[in-house]
Amino acid sequence: MKNKNTELFENMPVSRAVISLVIPTIISQMVTVVYNMADTFFIGQIGDPDQVAAAALALPLFMIFTGIANVFGIGGASLVSRCLGANDREKAEKAAAFSIWTSFAVALVYGISVYLLRNVVLPAAGANSATFDYCVDYVFWTMAMGGVPTVMNILLAHLVRAEGNSKQASFGMALGGVMNIVLDPVFIFGFKMNVAGAAIATMLSNLIATVYFVVFITNRKSELAVNFNFKNYTLKCKIPYEIIMVGLPSCAMNLLAVFSNITLNRLMASYCNEAIAGIGIAKKIDMLAFAIATGMSQGVLPLIGYNYSAKNYRRMMQSIKTTFAYSMVISVAGTVFLLTCAGPLVKAFINDPLTVQYGQLFQRIICISTPCVSVTMIIITIFQSVGKKVQPLCLSLLRKGGLDIPFMFVMNALIGVNGIVWATPIADVGGMIASILVFIPFWKRLKAEQNIITE
Questions:
Q1: Closest to 271 in 3D by CA, of 18, 34, 63, 49
Q2: Which of 157, 341, 402, 425 shows the greatest Cβ crowding within 10 Å of its Cβ?
């Protein structure tokens, strides 16, 4: 690891270290959200709710790629940062190689499988005769053709950030976002490819970002533990267990988010396609708030993991406190923005009056629990950064799937279409309360360990 990164992890003032890591990560997450929103925005300009609905229906299947990237990316980043904190570079290199090559294979198999099974998978996800063909186009380009670069883009960003290169990791992800925004109108309107054009733009943008990371890592291979040398690939030293079990909560959260969104879409489909399009747009906008929470938590992961392995508990605890403080300020501000600007934001995506009516109402409902999400995400990441396995998994399962899916059915039966959406903030509040209750004993143990060391 370069000296400047060792300085960041060990000696830089905590507030500066946190900002150095989280600001680029938040920016890259927000740019990634913007480019995800770009698909919906530009598709919405066609003025066809069926195509907007198709993109929303395909999104849960596409989100599984994020789960694949996170199980190996967050798990790998946690192990790499802890190995470097313990001065074990050789194991860090093996951890990185396992993450890279295993995720490559899993992404390839999953993307091709979904396309081959499209006649079964897409109807199960809520596609009907009006949206099926559009969904097929979107799945072919983003998943069958673009699945591997989608996963590698996210995965390599996690691993590069684990060594303190937060700016480079964020630039790579932001590059993909910018390219997607540029390419979307070219393929959708220039080549008149509609929803297929949006999918091609997404595939190419992720490919460009992946190429950037490959070039960066190759040029710095003598300095980085992260590399593409297949000789470092191993199933020994408990590396697969450590990576998969630590990264599993993030994957589980993504997978359950997929089932949650599929459940939501299927319940919405019993009303109308405008309701599906409206919640699709609202979810896209709300991803801005989720991007902030994700950026804060993922950005600080290497700092916490490094100092935990180095037994510098005081610095670790200061990092956690600083992250919580910054996150609360930003998330509250984000909630206020999304509440007050829901109408104009939704109207920017589509002019269909009924879709706008649904979208702005749904947006105001789901954004109110943004601070709760921030607390939960940070606590889950703290447990992941120190190599804990049970706590983050349980909290992830509770946050997505454990609470929101049952509440969707209950609230739908009680108050109809709006009740389906209210299940999200109810689940987020419950998830936050559970996270705090689990975190308190862990924090007390950290304080006890720190007191022993200082004595």
A1: 49
A2: 157
The Cβ-side half-sphere exposure at 448, using a 13 Å CA radius, reads: 6
Residue-level pLDDT at 162: 87
Query: What's residue 409's pLDDT?
Result: 92
For residue 2, what is the DSSP state?
-
Residues in the chain where the model's pLDDT stays below 70: 1-5, 32, 35-37, 401, 453-455
- Per-residue pLDDT at 3: 46
- Cα–Cα distances in Å, from 45 out to 229, 348, 349? 45, 9, 7
Instruction: Tell which residue, 241, 224, 387, has the closest CA to residue 301.
Output: 387
How far apart CA 357 and CA 279 sit, in angstroms, is 10
**Contact (Cβ atoms closer than 8 angstroms) between residue 266 and residue 420:** no
Res 424: pLDDT? 87
pLDDT at 119: 96
In three-state secondary structure terms, 227 is: coil
Closest CA to 98 of 253, 213, 227, 223: 227
Q: Within 13 Å, how many C-alpha atoms sit on residue 229's CB side?
A: 13
pLDDT at 370: 86
CA distance 10 to 17: 9
Predicted pLDDT of residue 5: 65
Q: Determine phi and psi for 12, rounding to 5 degrees.
A: -60, 140
Per-residue buried b or exposed e for 101-110, using 16+ beta carbons within 10 Å of the residue's own CB: ebbbebbeeb
- Say what angle helices 273-309 and 3-10 make with each other, to 10 degrees: 90
Q: What is the pLDDT of residues 282-315, one digit of tens each?
A: 887 787 777 888 888 888 888 898 888 888 888 9
Report the pLDDT value the prediction gives residue 31, as an integer from 0 to 100. 72
Helices then strands, each counted (H, E), the chain: 18, 0
> What count of residues does the chain have?
455
If we measure between CA atoms, which residue out of 74, 107, 77, 101 comes closest to residue 203?
Answer: 107
Q: How far apart are CA 207 and CA 199, in angstroms?
A: 12
Distance between CA atoms of residues 44 and 53, nearest Å: 10
Could you tell me if 350 and 55 are in contact, meaning their C-beta atoms sit under 8 angstroms apart? no
